[in-house]
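Slack export, channel: ligand-projects

TW: morning all. Re-posting the request from yesterday since it got buried. We need the structure predicted with the small molecule present, not the apo form. The ligand is zinc ion; the SMILES is in the block with the sequence. No rush, but it would help planning for next week.
GE: picking it up
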Amino acid sequence: MAEKRDYYDILGVGKDASDDDLKKAFRSLARKHHPDKNPDDPEAEQLFKEVQEAYAVLSNPEQRRTYDMFGHDSPGGSPFGPGGFEGVNINLDDLFSGGFESIFSSMFGGGGRSRGRRGHDILIRHTVSLEQIFEEAEIEFEAEISAECDTCGGTGAKNSDDIETCQTCNGNGQITQQARVGPFVQQIVSDCPHCRGDGQIISNPCNDCDGSGAMPKEQKIRISIPTGAADGTRLRMRGKGEPIRGGQSGDLFIQIETEPHPWFERDGPDLIMALPLGYPEMVLGTEIELPHIDGKPLKIEVPPASRPSETIIIHRRGMPYRRGRGRGDVTILLKLHVPNKITKAMKTSLNSLKGDFGLPLDEIEDAVRREAQDRRG
Ligand SMILES: [Zn+2]
Ligand SMILES: [Zn+2]
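GE: finished. pasting the full token output, ligand included:
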């Protein structure tokens, strides 16, 4: 399947596009790809649908914020439900008159959920070490996250009598309109434009939060890192996201990112590292100990006659598997260490070794042949 295109790209607008920019872009693209203008053209039909979907999401402030934060990979799955976006039937007339707006404004969270309003989800990233992922560490850190305003207790008003019931919707937060969708007349429920779905009007907003009822606050977050968590794992804390007046707070997502280790690369449960060795150690073999993520030293036994680019595998000393027991492996790639500076004395001693360890020029051709045979198995 082709990668889903970015909504802003589809509409050809920037990330900072205003509602008006979006409307203009949508109107012109929807006209261009409208099925009435492109009969029996599946490609135009697909583009028409794509443009609708992009506009549906970006014209809804809440959906747009979620999209800006998560992209197509939003935590609750597609905002249109498991089947994804179905497309709507919009007349060319509606595109000229602006009758399309109510169709889109009623698309999300409709159906009389006025009191079921929910704050935004928040995503923060936190970097942890391999050791912390290894031992299922409990960690605590501070992050600035939107929380209930202390001054007004989340009401958004200076005083409790500064809150009035909205007259337009009688406090329901929603209004019902008739709209034409293709050949049908449909009842459309949408957020009350007067109170923006609150059901309340605040005559005298709280100074500290400008009436939103929320403000950013430094907060302590305590999480336990799941053993073997993959890079990018998201932990959800229900109700710890942005609060909303008269509704339920959103969720807070913490995305776990792995701090680079001084020498290990991680490949799922396996760890990979390179080990430089001098020529004598390579030939004679050696034993090396390195501090390891599990707290016990990692003993690497290099057998005699080892060669650069050979690997040594130490089983079950890698990262834990995410589910169930067991651990991955540590793979050690041997590298030949060659000193940067060679003194006169080193030269003399190396030259004296040529007899035993060097490769005489008259044997080169045979050696090259053998190397090729080994390589080909
Ligand atoms: Zn209202
Ligand atoms: Zn306040």
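GE: first-pass observations. The radius of gyration is 32 Å. The pocket of zinc ion (ligand 2) is lined by residues 149, 151-152, 156, 206, 208-209, 213 (CB under 6 Å).
TW: perfect, thank you
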